[in-house]
């Protein structure tokens, strides 16, 4: 909301400049974006061109002599409209213009130039407010403009404007009157009354005009009639205030409807009475009903839109935009004034589809029904005065609005308790007085009557906020609440996982959960439906990720493109999907590694499956799943994984994740990824950490190398060895895998180191040899293994 | 005979001294003291001596033997020391060559901030709670006094996935959950850090960003308690000299509501480009829990009051580490990530 200081001064005395005003408003909760003069230029003066000759060295420049009263200046000017006798705005040497421009003495192609003649654009007015002349040339002042005086003052543009960013609850501040009350409370100044006085003619609107309201989404509708209007340019003060408020002046009638909206906050609509006919009916639109709006666009409406009709067809979109057929035009004679309140939620929906405007914004935030009446009268008063209108007697009224003033009880104790302050009673009452709220004191309780303009106040806490706002809370002494001592809880496991992964040398990332729909189903064979956004910002991010692998792969690609090598990443985050019509949201841990994991002299080995497997095992062991996890061939494999280098990670045979190499079709580099469903993993309970007595007797190690089929998995051999060896086998390790010379093509040699021990006694060689021989003979029988000598 | 012994002694002593290696030394020992050594030979020749001479020569030979053995031992130690030194000298390496790198990971700056915030509040007895990121309209808005069509919903343009579900626009959604889940409707002390989402994407806004929400409900809680709590938080987070400023504002779920500014930690409040010359930086939204919110979630506003606050984690991280572009957090360039690989100062 742009606040013109000149405008608000009609209603409240203000003695401070616009920056101080804006700062003072901020302190009571109304932030501002900017606060400055409407025309932010210095050293301007009205001049008259007394001589205008072509520049000897140019085909478009003119050398002018400009009389500014105290002297005559030589100025070179390039504007096509400069001519002898023209009254102009001169920026003198030393003038500062918007855009950090300073006017200096100059010499243009050999001709002295001591100043600049300006257009309104050069003085910082937005282009929508300036005439065509100003866009190509300099501003032309009227012939009677007084030479030597301040042109800004002369034009009435000596205004200051603060642009406030108001909070959504303060719809009342979307009006000059509302601002006046707020400033009145800050500076303890009374608010002057608005002038509504006008005369009426014999003709009674109620005899010729009807209003029918057929929807509950309009609870107040007033119609008045102005006859014989004379459409012309508005007086300067109206135009200038509209400009300061950011609204383009059109003609006196249109300007008056905007002016009244700015003053009172109540949007108005004016209809050409003769084209409208004798009736307005308000109803909800029919599905697919058509309407051509003011901007000459055919709109297709639906049952959520409120429409104004003439009883037969739609002639306007209530609160959003009028229709073309009843628009006020240059030849309009008679006007129907609409001042009404429509449902804010409905207006919000419609305006989101069609156009967010000054009017729709005000309807959305809510309106004071008393202002609806006020605005109708104020419009009549201004039309009579500035458009020579005759105002018909009476008002057509449909009124179901609640205009009762709220009475709220609040005790002095309530106020000081919630704020944690000790504001004296008289200070509290003083705040209500400054705000213009009536009150009655009953012992320790104040009954406050809230004016209807303050729709944001409905409970005692709202009044407490008002006291805090106007009295100020900066002086509150902060203190900590005295509460029972307790230690807060937090998710330690997630932190430990994070620290473990960092300890393993991985960079933690944070990626976007929104991915494109094609990526959303990749890297998994889980059955789910991806969740799409109804209204995505871009198609690149239109779906919630299920797997985090696409996110990490994007990060990998980003880094790889920038020549960042040796990438190892991890992230803990959420994955989303729809399963059996329910949304699921699971915590996941994802890892991606590529390039070298170990660095330094001689460490030339790139990351492989086993390094990543080691990382996974390290994490699972750390979390206490030792002995419960396996890496098994996936039952089903998504096509983004390498078919021969991918494993499902299981805990007690239940899959909790996947790890492996990405398919060369996904990336040409060697990239390994892992994803564990943490929600699932962590739901598997782990026993407490407990000390277990270790064997005090020496252990015995035996090594054996088998030659077996190349495709036989080590896990199968280990399982067989454990089965044959029984309890005394305490550890089993693979220490060599060999294929090549001396081993048949389809075979491999795999060597194990077996550790035997007994917690109760020293094992004898005979005992161990007995077990060891059984291991060998069983392996020969069941696995077709051969001992490698 | 005595001369012979003296000669042996002299020769042996010289040879011991001249031995340069342990092998040479051993050779000398064998030559003179070995089974077939020269001194041993003298002992063997004693049988030809008279009764009187035998003890004299015997004791002379023994003392010479002892003397030589001591000398050998001494030299042996010197030579061993020398050999060790030579070995050490050979083992010398270039200590300036690069190490075998033990990879060092890094913690994402936003998670660093989250952990820091958690630690501060956990120490004050707050529980850290979590809620769904794909939230219902009910918890994200309605239970926070933001009915459908409320104009304040504009402040938070949202990503809906169906008319009733959206990506949460604020961690405040967890407030309502915590209140609803508290069966005794008793005191609450929680913070909820997490990801939030809004339809906004430019240099200063990311459509995904981090927030932390705090909620305290108890008897006789006042605005002064909110201020005190935030003072502790801000001082620990941004420096002991930080000052707070409360500016009235509007949030539908608190009444009264305040935006909280912190004195600029770059210029200390004098005015600089970071604080846009104002000396203050807006950092938190806060207020006293709105009675409607208490009521809607089962609390009696006549018995309980409370405060709530929320702050942007990305902003905090940007301030704390001097990060200039919010998008760096989400592009995850390793040259960015690697800078967060150390312990920060306490």
Short description:
The complex is a heterodimer of chains A (789) and B (346). By secondary structure, chain A is an alpha+beta fold. In chain B, 41% of the residues lie in helices and 20% in strands.
General form of chain B:
rod-shaped
Pick out the low-confidence regions of chain B: none
Using CB atoms under 8 Å apart, which protein chain pair has the greatest interface?
Answer: A-B, 90 and 90 residues
Helix content of chain B: 40-55%
Q: How many distinct helices of chain B? A: 12
Number of domains of chain A: 6
Q: What is the CATH-assigned architecture of the largest domain in chain A?
A: 3-Layer(bba) Sandwich
Q: Strand sequence of the main sheet of chain A, in spatial order?
A: 29-32-33-37-36-35-34
CATH topology of the largest domain in chain A: Phenylalanyl-tRNA Synthetase, Chain B, domain 3
By CATH reckoning, the class of the largest domain in chain B would read Alpha Beta
Query: How many individual helices of chain A?
Result: 21
Mean model confidence by pLDDT of chain A: 93
Q: How many domains make up the coordinates of chain B? A: 2
Q: What is the β-strand count of chain A?
A: 41
| Alpha carbon gyration radius of chain A | 41 Å
The dominant shape of chain A is: elongated
Whole-Å distance between the termini of chain A? 92 Å
Radius of gyration of chain B: 43 Å
Mind telling me the CATH superfamily name of the largest domain in chain B?
Bira Bifunctional Protein, Domain 2
Are there runs of chain A of 5+ residues with pLDDT below 50, and where?
none
Task: Give an overview in words.
The complex is a heterodimer of chains A (about 800) and B (about 350). With about 800 residues, chain A is an alpha+beta fold. Chain A has 6 domains: about 60 residues, Phenylalanyl-tRNA Synthetase, Chain B, domain 1 (2-Layer Sandwich), CATH 3.30.56.10; about 110 residues, OB fold (Dihydrolipoamide Acetyltransferase, E2P); about 200 residues, Phenylalanyl-trna Synthetase, Chain B, domain 3 (Phenylalanyl-tRNA Synthetase, Chain B, domain 3, 3-Layer(bba) Sandwich), CATH 3.50.40; about 70 residues, Phenylalanyl-tRNA Synthetase, Chain B, domain 1 (2-Layer Sandwich); about 190 residues, BirA Bifunctional Protein, domain 2 (2-Layer Sandwich), CATH 3.30.930.10; about 90 residues, Alpha-Beta Plaits. Chain A is about 25% helix and about 30% strand. Chain A has a 7-stranded mixed sheet with strand order 29-32-33-37-36-35-34. In chain A, a hairpin with an 8-residue loop joins strand 39 and strand 40. In chain A, helix 13 packs across helix 15 and helix 20 crosses helix 21. In chain B, helix 5 crosses helix 10. The model of chain B has no long low-confidence stretch (mean pLDDT about 90). In chain B, strands 1-5-6-10-9-8-7 form a 7-stranded mixed sheet, with helices on both faces. Chain B has a 3-stranded antiparallel sheet with strand order 2-4-3. With about 350 residues, chain B is an alpha+beta fold. Chain B folds into 2 domains: about 90 residues; about 230 residues, 2-Layer Sandwich (BirA Bifunctional Protein, domain 2), CATH 3.30.930.10.
